[in-house]
Write a structure and sequence with these properties.
68% of the residues lie in helices and 5% in strands. With 76 residues, the chain is mainly α. A two-stranded parallel ribbon has the order 1-2. Strand 1, helix 2 and strand 2 form a beta-alpha-beta unit. Helix 3 packs across helix 4. It is globular and about 40 Å long.
């Protein structure tokens, strides 16, 4: 799950303790059920640029800083 995120690929993921720990509780594409997942897919289809901007903001503000810190503290 992490590798696509590292390469800038948004993922629609079920909300669960493991996904919140991995992507943060504010990851913009966490969904609670299958219906929300389909709605999210449609939102990407309808306006990919808008949806990607949400991903880019999360990636820049949460993913990069969080995983940079985790790499420093967990890999040493």
């Amino acid at each position: 799950m992490i590798e696509p995120l590292c390469y800038g690929v948004p993922e629609i993921v079920i909300r669960a303790p493991w996904s919140e720990a991995q992507m943060g509780k504010d990851y913009p594409f966490l969904v609670d059920n299958e219906m929300q997942a389909y709605a999210m897919i449609n939102a990407f289809r309808d306006d990919y640029n808008k949806m990607y901007l949400k991903f880019e903001k999360w990636h820049t503000e949460w993913f990069i800083p969080t995983y940079s810190q985790r790499a420093k503290t967990n890999l040493n």
